[in-house]
Amino acid sequence: MNISVVIPLLNEDESLQELYAWISRVMEANKYSYEILFIDDGSTDRSWKIIHELSQKHTEVKGIRFLKNYGKSQALHAGFKRASGDVVITMDADLQDSPDEIPELFNLITTENYDLVSGWKKKRYDSVIAKNIPSKLFNWAARRTSGLKLHDFNCGLKAYKNIVIKNVDVYGEMHRYIPVLAKNAGFNNIGEKVVIHQARKYGKTKFGYDRFINGFLDLITIWFLSKFGKRPMHLFGALGVLMFMIGFAAAGYIGITKLYKLAYDLPAILVTNNPWFYISLTTMIIGTQFFLAGFLGEIVLRSKRDKERYKISETENF
Predict the structure, then answer these.
(1) How many CB atoms lie within 10 A of CB 198?
(2) CA gap 287, 249 in Å, rounded
(3) How many whole angstroms separate alpha carbon 176 and alpha carbon 39?
(4) Domain locations along the chain
């Protein structure tokens, strides 16, 4: 099969039939073999009924329905597990992503051998204050932390080699950072294509301002996992040793100062009455806890690596 189109959706019953017709026209015009996977993320309107009707009439249409709203990342994860096409295209169901982009995205993957191609909505029809400015800030921060020179990390229109989506674990709200996850998994040939962005035709957006807060928190998580996910001791251990040595040196200085004053009959307060003594003691305790956190992280990772080696061995023997 040439292409799998994965479409996560929530309450988009007005656009589904039009979207299917548009995709099928593009596919048939280019003689692609294809499947369309609609992932209903807990819709409360007629979305699932329409998906069911389409699947009864057209064998290339398949549907997955969640019992409740789990989020776009979980919907993409479910779609990626079921997708069987050589190239996987993701797009939103609100008709803001144009299926006419599919042939060029497909060619970039198959002909130019990109692992992943991300869409760039260079000209947007969203609110400037509500979406455009926050989106620019968000993408700037993502570029700085990830090293990927993409203009639009959160564009729903993307193309992947099948092997990429099978090796990327999308969870939480990490759908915004699939290019970063792919890079961390070893897929470095990541490109970008300017795509058409259309004004929303039906309904209203499902995302609020909280998505930007969650997005930046997820970005911090991705940055940390990229830098220290495989070596937590390098961060926590280094911080722990540094803080412990600072606290130990401060406590030693306090003790030596006390002995010096006693030796020369100088006025001196009790060590336990010195507030700096407790600050240095607290610093040593926190440093020890950081070190232990790094040590425990290494143990967890070692156990995980052992489990992965066992799975690989079992597969090879089979």
Answers:
(1) 13
(2) 13
(3) 17
(4) 3-228, 232-317
What CATH fold (topology level) applies to the domain 3-228? Spore Coat Polysaccharide Biosynthesis Protein SpsA; Chain A (3.90.550)
pLDDT of 66 reads: 95
Provide the CA 54 distance to its chain's centre, in angstroms.
31
Look at the pTM and tell me if it is higher than 0.70.
Answer: yes
User: 183 - beta bridge partners?
Assistant: none
Distance from the first to the final alpha carbon of the chain: 26
Query: How much is the pLDDT for 64?
Result: 96
| Cα–Cα distance, 82 to 73 (Å, whole number) | 15
User: Which of 17-21, 169-173, 207-211, 238-242 has the weakest average pLDDT?
Assistant: 207-211
Residues near 279 by Cβ (< 8 Å), separated by ≥ 6?
247, 250
Angle between helices 275-317 and 238-263 (to 10 degrees): 160
In this structure, which amino acid lies at residue 75?
A
Under a CB-based contact definition with an 8 Å cutoff, are residues 24 and 35 in contact? no
Burial group, residue 22, by CB count within 10 angstroms (0-12, 13-18, 19+): middle
Rounded CA gap, 4 and 16, in Å?
17
